[in-house]
Design a protein that fits this description.
Elements (H helix, E strand, L loop, with lengths): L2 E12 L2 E13 L3 E5 L6 H7 L8 E4 L2 E4 L2 E2 L5 H7 L4 E4 L3 H4 L6 H13 L3 H14 L5 H6 L7 H13 L5 E5 L7 H18 L2 E6 L2 H7 L2 E6 L2 E7 L9 H8 L24
Parallel strand pairs: 3-9, 3-10, 7-8, 8-9
Antiparallel strand pairs: 1-2, 1-4, 1-5, 5-6, 10-11
Helix pairs in contact: 4-5, 4-7, 5-7, 7-8
Amino acid sequence: MLVEIQNLRIQFRTATGVSEAVRNVSLTLGQEKLGIVGESGSGKSLTARSILRLLPSNAISTADSLTFDGIDVLRADERTLRRIRGKRAGLILQDPKFSLNPVMTAGAQIAEAWHVHRGGSRKAAEQAAIELLAQVQIRDPQRVARAYPHELSGGMGQRVMIAMMLAPDPELLIADEPTSALDATVQAEILRLIEDLVSRRGMGLILISHDLPLVSHFCDRVMVMYAGRVVEELAAAALTRARHPYTRGLLECLPALSHRQTRLPVMQRDPSWLEV
């Protein structure tokens, strides 16, 4: 098993006391595609980032167990974590405009990731960067390698981010809303690319998204989060048969092209959903 989490809790120190953001979350992940869905603030990104211990300094993270390939992440020192972050587990963020270094070329950033985690000469790293750009289906990898982030479209920037994360050949890929800043056509291309790379390389994938139809077609399992806790977990193919009222509410709020709707339903929240 690649990732095992038991009873994860994440709290934040605030001016008014301690606020609980994630409560009693448990999950396991092998070489499969896990989707985590839920509205903004439900704890999706915090849960995924806890695997790499990339939480804000005012966060308090506890768990009965939080391991990556048998390594106790909560008790690991920084040297051990550096061997996991980037090298064995990659993180693709939402918007490449804010994730890429604006004063380095795309090729230099990918080459740096390769060189730091794999070693070798700078020339070999630069050649590997061009090959990785070709793998993420960029038509002119040499030209894109010489380009700066502001010279790239959103789709190209996201492909550069994916190439950078793939440079160390990780075992786990965490994609945090990787297509939220892209139009529908480019979204589909990026997701097909991720699916192909994950399948060919035999990686585990955590896909964080608000898009339920996308997750149901793309992932093997879906975990639904509400107010910091998991309310339902089921096979992706069975998402339309979800039983929890929150999941049902999310599905019913989606617009449909197959039939006319005068008004989209509004979710009616129940305080009992907050109970642990």
